[in-house]
Structure formats: C-alpha cells, structure tokens
Amino acid sequence: MTAPPRRHVALLASMAGAMLVALDGTVLLVAQPGLQHDLGASMAQVQWTSTGYLLAVASLLVIAGRLGDRYGHARLLFAGVLGFGAVSAGIALAPSIGWVIGLRAAQGVFGALLQPATLALLRLTYPADRLGTPVALRTSAIAVASGAGPVLGGVLVAHLGWRAVFWINAPIAVLIAALTLVVRPPAPRPAPSQRLDVAGAALLATVLVALVHTLAGVPAHGWTGAPTLLGLLVVAGLAALLAWHERRIAHPVVPHAVARSVPVTASMALLLVTSAGLFGALFTATFHLQDVLRLDPLASGLRVLPLTVLMVLGAPVASRALRRYGPRRVAIVGTALLTLGIAGLSRFDDPTSTWVAMGATFAVVGAGFATVMVTATGTVVGDAPAGYAGVVGGLKQTAMNIGPTLGIAVAASVTGLSAGGPAVPGATPAPGMGLALLVLAGCAALGLLPAALLPRAHATGQARTNQDEPGRDRRDPPPTHRERRTNPTRCERQRN
C-alpha cells in the first residue's frame, strides 16, 4: 500500500478507536440506572463500574505506550480493540454486578492498550509537519462520539435494555481490527532505551492507581478527610520513590528524552488543568441545570449541545491557526477562551436565564477546549521522536484521564455535591455553584503558564529530520565525516 492510502486508513482506524472509547464512556452513564435495577446493585457498586475501569486504564496507559514502541503499535491496537470488544460482549452476558465490575476493569486494560496506539499510528504514518489536520479530525470525532453517546445510549436502553450498549461494541471492534491489519505502518528504528523497566512500570502504575482512587473519593470524604489525606500522603511517598528510581537507572519507564522535553511536559500540564476545568464545569452545570433550574435531561442536553458543536467545528479551524500562528499563541488563545467560558457559566444561576445566552457561553467553552486539544495533542505527538510515539501518547491519555477526575473532585468539594448521588430536586441555588465554576475557571487559567512554554512555531528542517530518528536529540550537530562513512542511511535522510 502506498503512503497516501495507508495514511487514510491509519487515520480512519485512529478516529474509530478513539470514538469507540469515548462512546463507551458516555453510553455507560445512561445504562447505569437500568443496570442497577436489573442486577440489584447498590449505588457504590454501580460507581465501581466506572471507577474500576478508570483505575485500570489510567495506571497502564504509559506502560502500554512503551510496549507499543517496542512491539509495534498496530499489534497493540489490534489486540486492544479485539479485547475491548470481547470483554464488552462478556459484560452484556454478566449475571451479577460483581462480574460487571471485574469485566469493566479488564476492559480498562484493553482500553489502555489501544488508546496510545491510536495516536502513535498518526505519528508513524504522517510527516510531522502534516499532523495538524489528522489530529483535528480525531478531536472532532471524539467530540461527535461524546455528544452522540447519551442519545444513542438512551435509544438502546429504552428499546433493548442496558445490555445492548455493551453488545454494540463488539462488531465495531471487529471492524477496527480489520482496518488495523490493513495499515502496516512503517517501523521506526528501535530507540536505544526500548527495554521496559519492570520495577519502574510497577511503581508508576501504583502511583496512578493511588492518585485516581484518592481523587475519586474526594466527593465522599472531602479534601480534609482522613482517607483523602492518607491517600495523598501515599501518592507523594510513592512518587518520590519513583523519581528516585527513575534517576538511578539507564532505561526509565519514561525515557529521559521525553521527560526533559519542554513541549511534551508543557502539553501534558496544559491538558491536565484544562480538562480538569472543563469536566468539573460540566459536572457542576449538569447538577445546576437539572436540580436547581429544574430542566429535564433533554432540555439540559440542548443547553450543552453548542459545546459539542463548537468542538467539532472548531478543531479544523484550530488546526489551520496552529499552522499559521504556532502552538504558543494558539494555546494561549484557546486557554483564555475556555477560562472565560467557564467563568461566564457562573452567571447563569437564575431560572430566567435565556437559553441563547447560556448556549453561547457553552459554545465559547467548546471552542476553547477544541483549540487546546488540537494544539497540545499536535505539539506533543509531533515533537516526540518516532521511537517514543507510544509512551508520549500514553502520557497524553493519562493526563486526559486524571484531569477530569481532579476537576470533579474540586467541583464536588466546593459545591458539597456527591458524584454518586443526585441533589435534592427543587433545591434552592447553592452559593457554591457559582463559586465552584469560578474556581474551575481559575484551574483552567493555570493552563496559561504551560501554554506560554510551548514553541512559537513548529520545528522545521533539520529539527524535523532528527526528530524522525529515535534516540538522537534534535539539537545534535550534523554528522561528522566518520559518521558519514559508518552510517550513510542517516546522513542521506539529513540531506533530504
């Protein structure tokens, strides 16, 4: 298969894989009430159908990326998507809530395998200076899946029951696996630090499990509760041990070339704080719309719909702006829009607020987050050496999993709401609603700091060439005469 058709198939497989994961997460929210009633589960058990998946996927994303760098991302995507579909079918047949929780955790393992691979495929099949458009299309696809999930889930649950939302994943997974077999991306030369540090990987997974579990418990225990303080202490101790271990060994689980890359680390921080602001705001707004303004789910969804629309339409526009103005300026503008949009939502605590004004504010939030997503993802994937595309993709997805958990924890602690139970219908507007949105706007505004550290413009020329050679720093000098004799292939690439 020639390069252009291979790129198109890789883009389709990447978009479909990302949409499968996004769709699964949103339809589950609609299926949980029926699942609870059918299996006689408690609210805490229903929560674990989400928490178990989140713990598994967040803890293994970076490790899965490293495995993809070593064994091939097409293989990881193939295994991940087939496993994801097979386990999803198993959940549809589950006889009890215990089986559902266990299988959801297993589904998280396969979700971790496929998510970094969807980004790495783009890095391996597209030139670094052409990544903007495929990344934008992938972002739009995720927005479509996230927006369509509740609607599709509602139709399936209403007519076929909650098990149907898991059955539908199986045929989609088979189709994506078939696409993966066709892609056959070019295999980069293995990077010098491809050996997996098992001890470091175990420590990293433990840190992430402890962090996500602690943040998920904040709505129930608060930030000053004993479980939260103990969890944060454990996370700090394990993180210090991991940092000490990583400095001592030659082949850390997060390669030094990645950890020392300012564009990569700045993009991770940007995605972490902005996703925390966005999802915390959505959590707060959902409670406010339904339990304070007394809107039904359909009316609430229509108020939020402009956010999804602007994410879909804004991603291609952000891609063009990224090519023209560079990552730094575009990221700053996107973060500013997101911050202003979240802060603007705090003004709509009156039942007489017009839906036009609220919809326009949600549109600003969607445009801002789409801009941030396209810029940060394009920067982090484009800046990563091809040999490290998987681990960088894993880091990006980890930030996108931890950020929402952090945002919901912040929102729930400020408003006094619990993620596990609804507020009292008809309740008077809580003063914490507006305050929570302002706090979350401040959280998103923190993204201006890492945004200012992004490159002014995409690297070109020599930097791009060195970027395609894993293990070689982009700032390395041109090859010497001796290198020209011993490594003519690399020198020829540099001349081209």
From TrEMBL:
Where does this polypeptide localize? Answer: Cell membrane
Cite the record's Basic and acidic residues compositional bias ranges. Answer: 466-481
Going by the UniProt record, its keywords in alphabetical order are:
Antibiotic resistance, Membrane, Transmembrane, Transmembrane helix
Major facilitator superfamily (MFS) profile domain sequence ranges: 10-459
The transmembrane segments are: 45-64, 76-99, 105-124, 136-158, 164-184, 196-216, 222-244, 264-289, 301-318, 330-348, 354-381, 402-421, 433-454
Sorted alphabetically, which InterPro entries does this protein's record hold? MFS (IPR011701), MFS_dom (IPR020846), MFS_trans_sf (IPR036259)
Q: Which Gene3D superfamilies match?
A: MFS general substrate transporter like domains, Multidrug resistance protein D
| Region Disordered, annotated ranges | 459-496
The annotated topology with respect to the bilayer is:
Multi-pass membrane protein
Indicate the principal place this protein occupies in or around the cell.
Answer: membrane
Lineage: superkingdom: Bacteria
Q: What is this protein called?
A: MFS transporter
Q: Which organism is it from?
A: Streptomyces yunnanensis
